[in-house]
Amino acid sequence: MCVFCVVGSERVEEGQVRSFMGHPKCRESFGFKEGKSYLIMGRSADLLRTDGRLQYILGEQTWIEYWPTSEEGQSSEFEDQYLGIQDLTQKLIYFGCLT
Hints:
Its main location: secreted. 21% of the residues lie in helices and 30% in strands.
């Protein structure tokens, strides 16, 4: 779920597809599961513009965090993680990215 993300002047809305690139030997270690949501944050230096679209490079300084659903957020396993990401989301909506 991408509620609100801004990369440079590119606004990303929920449901839009973005291209991510990672080193072939590292891809499995990311542990992405289809149908799940992730918070992904990285350096602006890890962006490539190709044919007017941004491609995101997943590198050693990329932060990847599983984004639990609201239902999962009710469980003790994911409650802190869910609340933390919700808090971050609200701060980004109201204050933007301060980098």
